[in-house]
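Forwarding these from the shared drive since the link keeps breaking.
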Amino acid sequence: MKAVFVEDAEKISVKDIEVPELKPNEVQIKVKVAGICGSDIHTYKGLHPFRKPPVVIGHEVAGEVVEVGSSVTKFKVGDRVTVEPQIGTGESEGVITGNVNYSDTRLAPGMGDWLGTMAEYFASPEEQVIKLPDSVSYDQGVLVEPLAVGVHAAFKGDVQPTDRVAILGAGPIGLLTLIAVKAKGVKDIVVTDVLDYSLQVAKEMGASEVINIKDNSNWIHDAKQSLDKGSFDKVFITAGVPGIVNDSLNLLRKGGRVVTVAMFHGQQSIDIEQLQQNEKEIIGCMTYNRPDTEEAVEIIASGNLAVEKVISHKLHYEEAARGFTIVDKKKDKSVKVLVSFE
């Protein structure tokens, strides 16, 4: 089968490899489409903490079941599916509590002998496979996993319909967090970014207001004024840039909550005085758990929100190298880039 490899930092190739041999508890999926995620870019740049080149890349997937292992009972050939790509291992807190995202030794595609999803076939344990409703296309199905990140963020933020919400960063995760927040009934949502085209997508996906913060030293004031309601109840950080934590605190009302969704590298300074004296909160947020994934499927299946507007490109797997380049360099007005295996 054909598979997309990150060979080394910023080097993508397509190779012929053997179709993975199916274990008794596994489902063999004919991949229809995979997605390029921000964490895939971290691997591509050689920055990912545990997914290291050379590796078959990818963890977002939608496809059709073509074979099932001898002990599989929940799926059959022909089922349309996606995958929750994480397994808690050992006796870590995540395994014991059922919060897989707490597991110190999580297994994910591209680790050990579990190949990534950017290949013609992808084998997954049955327990990680999720059936797609007939109303959900493969292109929508591949968005279940990243939308689950946004759903978990909304859960960690304890989002309420009357909240005033700011989302800092209009990349795919920021935009899908927007969808998750809207699904909670929130009306007042401001999205910030430095790219006009990303902000236009945010507007199309339902943001109340958008603000380009590039070269705008007054953007925090502008954000507070944009809804004529002052400071925000909840702020979601979906871009891990320097200074953004304190920016978030400056946007927040007393007693409000910041949720850190983005992947950070290095240290961030925190205005501890503002945090303490105003009883503001900063909450960590890491991936998702099964209820988040199930809710993501429900949001997409409802058809009420424009989830698929996050997709900017769909490229054949032979063009995967171009896909990684345009995502990494933010070229061609790229937002969410899909890789097709049809």
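-- next protein --
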Amino acid sequence: MTLESLYEAAFEMLTDEAMWIGFGWIIVKVILITLAAYITVIVIRVVVRKTFSVRIRGPLKYNERRQQTLSKLLENVVAYVVYFVAIIAVLSTFTIDITGLIAGAGVLGLAIGFGAQNLVRDIITGFFIIFEDQFSVGDYVRIGLAEGTVEEIGLRTTKVKAWTGELFIFPNGNVTDVVNFSIHNSIAVVDVNISYESDIAKVENLIIEFLETLQDRYEQIIKPAELLGVQNLTTTEVVMRITAETLPMQHFAIARSMRRDLKEFLDQRGVEIPYPRMVMMQRSPEASNSTAIAKK
């Protein structure tokens, strides 16, 4: 075949109207499949969010946690399935044998399953984390040395964001020991230091009077706060302990507010809060001479 004949064949191919029409239809199909997949994912995500936004019977906090977690998980699963189907549809437009491809993908998946046991373990562990409701999106947890709010629970990983901004990403298979602070109510603990000169009985009555007003001011407090009594006797002060049951993870804020309000309350009633003091003693020269003479 001469160079001239090659040019003629190339020219005939490039000027073949049927080929360009067929190629154009393939491009149109690919664009339509891509748009359809994108729109389908968006629509299904909206439907999932609307479905899980409906209130169901049971503890409100529990439902909200499960709604957020399952909603995120279903959105991810739907996106993976739709995009996989879209890829298969795009390949079919290029007249690629999909049956053989799927069969080969099954064999390849089996081989990967044996080789990627950690991946399979991560997915199975993630399923049981959600199924058993060990923790959910929005919970405050401690996993190993990481502590923070659960941002996302995926098929393979869990993301925890610390209050200082760090984002911890754990493979689900490595999530073994978990402390969940958001399931049950929290306890705010406040220690009040009282000087030894104060009347303990009077101070206890004042603190009880103060505690009776807390539930009206702070809706996060579930039960009436309690004065447990004298917690410790140090060399400089008497330590009295107060506890209050709050909504999950609200104990830090409530404890800070209680300390501020209690300080103002006791100041208005003349109760002294102890603080470090320094006592200086100075001897006169006459006292020093008399002491020296006495020693002689």
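The two ends are 134 Å apart (CA to CA). The longest strand covers residues 186-194.

- D.
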